DNA sequence: ATCCCGAGGG
DNA sequence: CCCTCTGGAT
């Protein structure tokens, strides 16, 4: 994709959705961290369904710890990978209490040191909670970056670095959510809905058979 | 490279 | 049935 096309690409996404927001439901930094940790290889619809029951009962590190492994599993059993997520979240809560006074740390280094928090999750928290222009490359952004030609790459890190380099600064803050939403609702994994895509004119991917 | 691992869609 | 979903740890 040409450089001038990248500006046009994001101008269109911005015009359609000036203030994009995560679809995960949360009301504090800790709830956000918890929701993002639970969202690995899971839909945010499924995560919200679980956290709507969990957060009213426990939305602090102390309260989550008090649930224990079994208690916490009971709330998140409908989410994939729930045993590891329960274990990681409990360990993370312990660290938050012991090292950060129960608060969510605001640096990449501290976030990635938490069990269950890798580069992608840290990037989401840094972007959404702390307003940093990070690019969390999840399954959607990895696919969209490659398919569109926006930032082709063999690994999520390569795509992340390509996007950070190529996206104009004024769009970086919200680019994460625009690309997520594009991938989720239009540039879908199995059947991309190119016929109703607002940025198809600037995209390298051209489907062979047109559909309705 | 492999494991974890339920829900929803096609 | 198979694929996908805002991955991370071993």
From TrEMBL:
PROSITE patterns: ENDONUCLEASE_III_1, ENDONUCLEASE_III_2. GO terms for molecular function: class I DNA-(apurinic or apyrimidinic site) endonuclease activity. Its cofactor is [4Fe-4S] cluster. Keywords: 4Fe-4S, DNA damage, DNA repair, DNA-binding, Endonuclease, Glycosidase, Hydrolase, Iron, Iron-sulfur, Lyase, Metal-binding, Nuclease. It is an enzyme of class 4 (lyase). Belongs to the Nth/MutY family. PANTHER family: A/G-SPECIFIC ADENINE GLYCOSYLASE/ENDONUCLEASE III (PTHR10359), ENDONUCLEASE III (PTHR10359:SF18). DNA repair enzyme that has both DNA N-glycosylase activity and AP-lyase activity. The DNA N-glycosylase activity releases various damaged pyrimidines from DNA by cleaving the N-glycosidic bond, leaving an AP (apurinic/apyrimidinic) site. The AP-lyase activity cleaves the phosphodiester bond 3' to the AP site by a beta-elimination, leaving a 3'-terminal unsaturated sugar and a product with a terminal 5'-phosphate. This is Endonuclease III. The lineage of its organism: Bacteria, Pseudomonadati, Pseudomonadota, Betaproteobacteria, Burkholderiales.
């Amino acid at each position: 994709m040409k450089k001038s096309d990248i500006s046009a690409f994001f101008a269109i996404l911005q015009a359609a959705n000036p203030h994009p927001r995560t679809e995960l439901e949360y009301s504090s930094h800790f709830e956000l961290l918890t929701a993002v940790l639970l969202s690995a290889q899971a839909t945010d619809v499924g995560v919200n369904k679980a956290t709507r029951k969990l957060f009213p009962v426990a939305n602090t590190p102390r309260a989550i710890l008090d649930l224990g492994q079994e208690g916490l599993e009971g709330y998140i059993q409908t989410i994939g990978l729930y045993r590891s997520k329960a274990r990681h979240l409990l360990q993370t809560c312990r660290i938050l209490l012991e090292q950060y006074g129960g608060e969510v740390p605001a640096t990449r280094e501290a976030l990635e040191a938490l069990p269950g928090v890798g580069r992608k999750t840290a990037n989401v928290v840094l972007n959404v909670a702390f307003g940093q222009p990070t690019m969390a490359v999840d399954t959607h952004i990895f696919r969209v970056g490659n398919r569109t030609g926006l930032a082709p790459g063999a690994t999520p890190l390569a795509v992340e670095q390509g996007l950070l380099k190529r996206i104009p600064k004024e769009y970086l803050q919200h680019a994460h959510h625009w690309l997520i939403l594009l991938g989720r609702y239009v540039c879908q994994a199995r059947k991309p809905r190119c016929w109703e895509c607002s940025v198809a004119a600037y995209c390298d991917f051209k489907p062979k058979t047109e559909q309705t």
